[in-house]
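Listing 4. Sequential folding, example run.
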Amino acid sequence: MPEKSNQPQPQRREPLLPNLLFNILLPIVLLRKGDDWFGWSPTYVLILALAFPLGYGIRDRIVNHRVNLFSIVGLVSILLTGVVGVLRLPPIWLALKEAAVPAVLGAAVLYSMKTRYPLVRTLIYNPQVIQVDKVEDHLKLKGSKAEFDKTLAHATYYLGASFFLSAVLNFVLARVVVRTHPAIDAAGYNQELASMYAWSYVVIVVPSMVVMMVALWVLIRGIRIHTGLTLEDVIQGGEPPIPDNKAEK
């Protein structure tokens, strides 16, 4: 019978899609449509929206024994959005809120470099997209792990820059489009808000995606330089990881 390994089991990676869905997307949809769907007051809708990132963060803490940065960002984002809506604050506060969320996420990306769970590994260097085990095996064979870690750091800077760019563009767009005070003309405010979100896909998402693609290109280029593997070799669905010679003995 094969001997049981005393090596600690690798920590389970949390999938990206549920992270985004429960911490950001669902709460935002609830804040915008919850009062129409349920007929609740904005305060109760805010509490329900906050329950998603809070619950997901607590679950991740219990299951994976770590702090989920996406949940923290989601809580901050939803809380700011709810406060602006419930208190009917002037448009400048909406602009500050729109800038604060990606700015916090960008800061979280950079801060995560100092932790055991850098967000670059969740967002672009993750096993759902790249055969991470295969890359790590080749890095060990070539003794180039330290050099590749520098590549990951460079990709992280670009990733953080994409969020900071989004923060600046969010602020400018909100100030240009939303000018009506919600306490004076709620219908006009909501119409301008809808226009802002419609324009955001062109004004914000496209430039930010370009910078994020640069981060991905830096990562793929680093993999090719430090392992000799091509994109086709490491993308999920490509060739399997190199076999462990110890397992054959």
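-- end of first protein; second protein begins --
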Amino acid sequence: MMGPAHSLSGAAAWLGVGAAAAAAGHPMPWPVLVVGALICAGAALAPDLDHKSATISRAFGPVSRGLCEVVDKLSYAVYKATKSRQDSRRTGGHRTLTHTWLWAVLIGGGASVGAITGGRWAVLAILFVHLVLAVEGLLWRAARVSSDVLVWLLGATSAWILAGVLDEPGNGSDWLFTAPGQEYLWLGLPIILGALVHDIGDALTVSGCPILWPIPIAGKRWYPMGPPKAIRFRAGSWVELKVLMPVFMLLGGVGGAAALNVI
């Protein structure tokens, strides 16, 4: 799928988690619901770090473009080293390593560890990166006509303000993980969810997605998961723009309202 649809699906997924958490007796304070939805929207773009033309490659200028090239080469090297005889030949690393459940867990787990060990500056860095990506995804039309510096300033300012709100007692820095020293441990959860939602979205397209790597399926380690090919669609097609995106907005609204006990 394209960047805007990925970001919308990520935000909707976290709002749905908020509704489920409220039903399970662990309601999210509103700052956790808002910040988590924004992080998840940004994280839903991150798996495309293996593609030099993706939204994330433009988000941080030369830094993200260079990182995309490195990740593409790394992903391709891992693919070549682990593919089976049944796996197809490739010329690049797009939709391989960064589009797997293992990558999602490692990145999200690393963010959680960084948040609880790196203190406030680590939290601010995690928020900044994902808020910039959320702006690029959710407000893509405005972001593309704005300068990168303005988007970065918006991300940095928002990260500083939201971190201050979360730090207030009862606002959620210790949501779900309440032991001393576990503040912001939950930050990895929307990152994991966003990456997985991205992978599921890509699995709906023509090419599928090797979400379950390295688990072998039908003799392939990089089996492209997805529904029957007859109901898959091409990225950017009318199905994505006219059906899926409105559905994501509707589900997100319902999930957010349920999470806040409005409905």
